[in-house]
Design brief:
four-stranded antiparallel beta sheet; single chain; Rossmann fold; alpha/beta; globular; 34% helix
């Protein structure tokens, strides 16, 4: 597990400043909720932390790797091997089974699927998805699709998983189930979790929180 440090992050689009000198630290194994109104800059911040978007200034360091200084090729490798992503709309490949969707990062990174069978079995048992592994995403409920997306993010043992509105496309019951799962995975496997959310209930599952307002950190706890 690795600590994360965000230092002096700045980002503008079309001359409008989205993030202004944002700085904070995340301890390895934390569950951080990033909240704020629409347009506050929180999703932009998450994209920069995950190496998807380059900042105009400042640094993001995961462990001893300053990811903001890496090339696009190096970032692509990092995202395939050390960082997991989960999005609001699941992003599962419709022509692939649930099992193949979960193992997709392994194949993209050139890994041997056989080396991940034990990890897959443990995660599937933990999330109770064994009965849908051979199914395709279109027959799954929204909650099952999001759980599959979470397993896909975890299969390669990342240092951190980033989630952008993980319950934004779910009803309240499925949302609660997904958040309980994330909390259990965080505690059981020790993976660092960073989520952006509008949901006050969803944010409460984290053990730390920051509020982004007008591109700056308003509060940090």
């Amino acid at each position: 597990m690795k600590n994360i440090e965000v230092s002096g992050i700045q980002k503008s689009f079309d001359g409008r400043e989205i993030l202004h000198s944002v700085s904070f630290k995340i301890k390895a194994g934390d569950f951080l909720s990033i909240t704020g109104e629409s347009g506050s800059g929180k999703s932009t911040l998450l994209a920069i932390m995950g190496g998807v978007l380059k900042p105009d200034g400042g640094t993001v360091t995961i462990g001893d790797a300053e990811i903001t200084s890496l090339s696009e090729k190096q970032l692509a490798v990092l995202r395939r091997t050390k960082i997991g992503f989960v999005y609001q709309f699941f992003n599962l490949v419709p022509t692939m089974t649930v099992r193949d969707n979960i193992l997709l990062p392994v194949r993209l990174a050139g890994g041997r699927v056989a080396d991940y069978e034990e990890k897959l079995a443990k995660l599937v048992e933990f999330t109770r998805l064994s009965n849908v592994l051979s199914s395709y995403p279109d027959v799954l409920s929204g909650g099952e699709q999001q759980r599959a997306a979470i397993l896909r993010a975890l299969i390669h043992d990342p240092d951190v998983i980033f989630l952008d509105e993980p319950t934004g496309n779910l009803d309240s019951e499925n949302a609660r189930g997904v958040m309980e799962l994330l909390k259990d995975l965080n505690k059981t496997f020790g993976v660092t979790v960073v989520q952006v959310t509008h949901s006050e209930q969803g944010a409460s599952y984290g053990n730390s929180r920051i509020l982004v307002k007008d591109g700056s950190i308003e509060t940090c706890s």
